[in-house]
Amino acid sequence: MGIAGLTEGDARAQVPGHPEGMLKLVYDTRARAILGLHILAERAALLLGEGAAAVQAGLPIEALAAAIHPHPTLSEAIGFATRGERSAKT
């Protein structure tokens, strides 16, 4: 499990093939700044760095949505969450 930032969120995503995990993204709906990222999944630490850097830099959610999240990798979950998708099947 990994957490960066606040504890309440606006977006959630699920990694395809990993129905037991959860990614929760918290952002300011006015300023669009990312305030937190919660990951409950195996190897959550592999994803936490990107979220922690986004929180520290005050990046807007659109910046993470535009970032490359290779397929097939766990980092796709961050791309799904920032684009409001539930999974690759959506």
Word description of this protein:
By secondary structure, this protein is of the alpha+beta class. The protein has a single domain, classed as Enolase-like, domain 1, CATH 3.30.390. The protein is built from three helices and four strands. Strands 1-4-3-2 form a four-stranded antiparallel sheet, covered by helices on one side. Strand 3 and strand 4 form a beta hairpin. The termini are far apart.
Relevant terms:
90 residues; alpha+beta; Enolase-like, domain 1; four-stranded antiparallel β-sheet; 3 helices; globular
Distance between the termini: 25 Å
Q: Under the CATH scheme, which class?
A: Alpha Beta
Q: Compute the CA-based radius of gyration.
A: 12 Å
Portion of residues in beta strands equals 15-25%
Question: How many individual domains?
Answer: 1
The level of helicity is 25-40%
The CATH topology comes to Enolase-like, domain 1
Shape: globular
CATH architectural grouping:
2-Layer Sandwich
Largest sheet: 4 strands, antiparallel
Order of helices and strands: EEEEHHH
**Count of distinct strands:** 4
